[in-house]
From TrEMBL:
Organism: Rossellomorea pakistanensis
EC number: 1.1.99.14
Protein name listed in UniProt: Glycolate oxidase iron-sulfur subunit
Free-text function comment from the UniProt entry: Component of a complex that catalyzes the oxidation of glycolate to glyoxylate.
Alphabetized UniProt keyword annotations: 4Fe-4S, Electron transport, Iron, Iron-sulfur, Metal-binding, Repeat, Transport
Keyword Iron-sulfur listed: yes
Record-annotated 4Fe-4S ferredoxin-type domain positions: 12-43, 64-95
Cofactor: [4Fe-4S] cluster
Catalytic activity: (R)-lactate + A = pyruvate + AH2; glycolate + A = glyoxylate + AH2
Cofactor note: Binds 2 [4Fe-4S] clusters.
Amino acid sequence: MSKDDTLTNVLYKKTYDEVNQCIQCGYCLPACPTYKSMETESASPRGRINLVKMAAEGKIDLIEDLKVPIDLCLGCRACEIACPVDVPYGSILENAKEVIHDMEVHEKKNHAFKDFALNQLFTKPKSMKVSSDLYYLYQKSGLQKFVRSTNLSEKLVKNVGSFEKALPKVPAKKYQIKRGRLYEAKTENAVKTVALFLGCINDAVFYHVNYYTLELLRVSGCNVYVPEEQTCCGALHAHQGQMKQARQLAKENLTAFEEYAVDTIITNAGGCGAILQEYDHLLKDDTEWMMKAKKFTGKIKDISEVLSSLNSLPFTEKLDKVVTYQPSCHLSNVQKAGAFPEWLIQQIPGVKYIELPSKNSCCASGGIYNIQQYDESMKILGDKMDEVNIIKPDIVVTSNPGCLIQISHGINTYGEGQPESIHLVELLARSCGIYIQ
């Protein structure tokens, strides 16, 4: 039996029952951003499901026929919310990506840079710290200013280089959270003890987001543990079909957090929170680890959900700003916590909140989708920015680092009036008088 036959059988065993749940009704079509932008059935959830079914039956080739439609999926999972028969599209997509990845490994297709970034950078806290230090130096030395003024990154790396201008200004390194310690509440009595998941990208480049998250928890009465050995959540690996690596990272995080007697683990990135909340599914073939994961996943909460439930933010400053919000797809569609950020924004004194008409449609960041599928991503982002331009907000709020980069890029590329793009926790921090100097 060839490797192709073996992987086809694997796809059949993992997905065939799931793909046959789809009744091809088409309710998913209006919810799918790639179907709306590409207007082709193979770019729709039901179309992709049918292709996976045909590949599992050996009727089409995994690489030649299935790879491109699967790669063009954002993985936003809005189709799951729209589906009347609860087809587990996320699981189908995950298994298809894993089989495609394994076939490419077998065929020795070279993805050296991607593999290095995913497995030698994002998963290594020490490597991420070095990257963070280098980025800080790049910014403070004046080199970033030179690169931006000359558009050097765009000239060197067509299209993708333009994202450099969307990267955040990082604060002094003293605001980077130290691991392996307890940060005590800033209230007279602590009302809750939690643990904080830092993430890899947030900890290296968006550590101001982690800082604001920590301080908001502390002023709300929380003691906060920051486990030393936590690592990358594995979401980017899962998006690329590297499920073996994702499962290993899951095990490392379960071990890192299991010693802490907390009932809540805080995340501030929708993409991270979604996969953390599905570790039990990720490890379903290993009974011992799956049981550990079930305890863990029940503790995962987005910062917006926890702050909403505590309802004790000390708002001290009135923000006379027009604000709109682009939700994280995974926060809404997987964590089912999409209502909390909007509720919090509307509690801020002085804020005029205007809902984005297509708020439930993906911004097309999709992990690194906007890098791998730049043109398709920009079609979707351009439509999103048309709505932002009509609203003319002072601030566009997001709740995921990838979304924050994407929206910032959208403002730089398509924006009118140049509104500010910030994470939800930064907006809340300002209203509570918490600033980074």
